[in-house]
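User: Let's play a game. I give you a shape written as tokens, and you guess the letters that built it. Ready? Here's round one.
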């Protein structure tokens, strides 16, 4: 064996590169003339962790309301919840005022509540740092707290002259301003020094004031002046001549405004007046013949007729649909219904004039003079009426179809076609359990979107449907679907159901849309111990609900032999009348 074989038996050379490693293996065995070289190339893929990015508005404006100003934005990163956001608040001299280190939620959202509450301008220097210590580009945005609007103050007053043999009189009334707590009012007797000025005393927080002084010392002619303002002060003043007994010279109604300038010389006793000498019961600012003290609409357009409260049709919305009466073609829209530009909801319109309103008309383009069924469809348009059926959680569509109570119902309602839907979710549920289990409710309002979209497609492709039926979780899915779709039905039947209370976001959508106006039936069985007590809460979400309780049924739709069976049949068929 020569010197080459007397060396080491294996020579391993590693050539390292950024794209991988090359390993050369030379195997010298007993045969000097044989060399075997093997080359192995191993790819190494390195994960890239980019610096975080900030998404934030260029400016934040906060109208002063006494609360601290806030700013917010988003961090874009591989794991945003592991990032932090640093916010440095700088004043107009670029001096640091406040510094905040903020956490970021799983959606990348962050929010800072500053300690700034007074009007002014600041710069927010914002940056983000990810878990690897990488920093985003710093962003400078503006934060402005604007001053509130403040109008010029006005006041009214009344004068209670000294009684017989007394010299003490009292001025009282109201100062009107957005911030009455900032107001001061003072009486300055004519031709007397400031030592004789009389300050008003405010009581309560509505601008009520009074001031009492000795008329034997203070001149009863002078200026009544008020000054108000939270951030911008302004004044209002009136010259007054305060009549003294026993002869209230030239002031027949004793309102402290002399008769020669008093536009209302017969003001009722005790009513505060403006500088015109008129009280609210004598003033009609908008000229609608209803005095201010009775006028609930103070700026009626000129020439419009008003009711007893001083309101014209252009100022009223009797049905609260967002359209004033003068523009509302449907003045009695039911509460909560969406209206068009004429103030009419679908329940008040019948576009194809078939006698069925748009909200329940599933065939909106019926030819004129065509006989239609309860949902607005002619025989040519729809064929038999259809019922959409939703199975229970963990059950299949065929499982619902084969239940004895459903078989009995299909036989009794042979004039209807039943369409059994099958959930798109895994495990045959319409609503998945919360991520943390039923003990940790989810607040996600979109938690059931997959099932809602699926049912919308079923209605679009196989509808129209006269009714929707649900069993167990299928019944719980019905109010979720009605709250999140524009589709409607003539009847709703819910067997052995409940509200999905472990999904707070879905319950929020139900509460915002309920009570539902569709006639509904909620069935419960006396022997259904896990569900019967939840039926009333489900029924309460419908304004017209028939609650049916069987003394013999368990967690199943009632059989034909059940005493409640015909009551449910009548409910379903009543909608066809």
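Assistant: Ready! My guess for every position:
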């Amino acid at each position: 064996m020569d010197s080459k074989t007397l060396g080491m038996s294996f020579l391993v050379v590693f050539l390292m590169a950024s794209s991988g490693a090359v390993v050369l293996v030379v195997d010298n065995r007993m045969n000097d003339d044989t060399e075997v070289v093997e080359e192995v190339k191993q790819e190494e893929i390195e994960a890239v962790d980019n610096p975080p990015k900030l998404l934030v508005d260029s400016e934040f404006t906060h109208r002063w309301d006494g609360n601290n100003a806030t700013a917010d934005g988003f961090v874009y990163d591989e794991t945003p919840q592991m990032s932090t956001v640093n916010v440095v608040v700088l004043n107009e001299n670029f001096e640091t005022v406040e510094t905040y280190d903020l956490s970021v939620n799983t959606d990348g959202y962050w929010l800072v509540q500053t300690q700034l509450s007074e009007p002014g301008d600041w710069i927010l220097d914002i940056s983000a740092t990810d878990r690897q210590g990488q920093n985003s580009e710093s962003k400078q945005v503006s934060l402005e707290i604007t001053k509130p609007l403040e109008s010029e103050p006005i006041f009214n007053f009344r004068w209670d002259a000294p009684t017989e043999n007394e010299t003490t009189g009292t001025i009282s009334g109201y100062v009107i301003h957005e911030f009455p707590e900032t107001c001061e009012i003072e009486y300055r007797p004519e031709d007397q020094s400031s030592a004789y000025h009389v300050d008003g005393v405010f009581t309560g927080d509505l601008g009520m004031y009074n001031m009492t002084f000795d008329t034997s010392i203070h001149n009863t002619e002078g200026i009544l002046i008020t000054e108000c303002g939270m951030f911008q002060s302004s004044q209002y003043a009136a010259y007054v001549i305060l009549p003294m007994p026993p002869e209230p010279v030239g002031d027949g109604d004793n309102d402290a405004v002399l008769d020669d300038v008093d536009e209302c010389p017969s003001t009722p006793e005790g009513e505060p007046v403006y500088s015109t000498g008129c009280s609210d019961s004598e003033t009609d600012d908008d000229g609608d013949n209803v005095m201010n003290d009775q006028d609930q609409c103070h700026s009626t357009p000129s020439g419009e007729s008003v009711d007893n409260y001083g309101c014209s049709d252009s100022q009223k919305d009797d049905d609260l649909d967002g359209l004033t009466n003068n523009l509302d073609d449907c003045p009695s829209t039911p509460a909560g219904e969406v209206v068009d530009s004429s103030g009419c909801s679908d329940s008040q319109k019948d576009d194809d004039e078939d006698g069925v309103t748009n909200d329940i008309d599933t065939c909106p383009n019926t030819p004129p003079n065509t006989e239609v069924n309860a949902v607005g469809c002619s025989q040519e348009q729809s064929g038999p009426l259809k019922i959409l059926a939703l199975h229970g959680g963990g059950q299949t569509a065929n499982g619902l179809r084969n239940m004895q109570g459903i078989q009995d119902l299909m036989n009794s309602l042979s004039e209807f076609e039943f369409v059994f839907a099958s959930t798109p979710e895994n495990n045959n549920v319409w609503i998945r359990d919360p991520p943390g289990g039923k003990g940790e409710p989810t607040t996600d309002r979109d938690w059931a979107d997959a099932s809602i979209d699926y049912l919308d497609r079923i209605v679009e492709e196989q509808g129209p449907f006269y009714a929707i039926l649900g069993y167990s979780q299928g019944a719980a899915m019905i109010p979720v679907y009605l709250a999140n779709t524009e589709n409607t039905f003539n009847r709703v039947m819910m067997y052995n159901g409940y509200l999905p209370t472990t999904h707070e976001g879905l319950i929020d959508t139900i509460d915002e849309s309920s009570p539902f106006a569709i006639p509904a039936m909620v069935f419960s069985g006396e022997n259904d111990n896990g569900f019967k007590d939840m039926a009333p809460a489900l029924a309460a979400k419908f304004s017209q609900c028939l609650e049916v309780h069987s003394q013999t049924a368990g967690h199943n739709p009632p059989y034909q032999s059940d005493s409640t069976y015909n009551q449910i049949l009548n409910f379903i068929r009543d909608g066809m009348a």
